[in-house]
Design a protein that fits this description.
about 80 residues; mainly alpha; 3 helices; about 80% helix; globular
């Protein structure tokens, strides 16, 4: 991955984290943590979609959708872990 790809994933991840925080209802971690999880979700979404061979859309819109899917997955996992702990 080049530096441009990483920077795009960071920006897309921030947007995806915000969207995932809105989509996943319940007790929120707060905007900043949701954005951080969204950034991690961007990497997870890119990896998972690549492994599955799924391409949802092209360009920035596709990247936001993939990252939002990854962020929602991570937010759900984080909330489950928070309930257990």
């Amino acid at each position: 991955m080049g530096i441009e790809v990483i920077l795009i994933l960071l920006v897309v991840g921030a947007v995806a984290g915000w969207l995932a925080g809105i989509l996943v209802k319940g007790k929120s971690f707060g905007l900043v943590v949701d954005i951080i999880i969204g950034i991690a979700g961007a990497f997870v979404g890119k990896y998972v979609m690549g492994v599955l061979g799924v391409s949802i859309a092209g360009g920035i819109l596709g990247a936001i959708i993939n990252a939002t899917i990854g962020a929602v997955i991570l937010l759900l996992i984080a909330r489950i872990i928070k309930k257990i702990g």
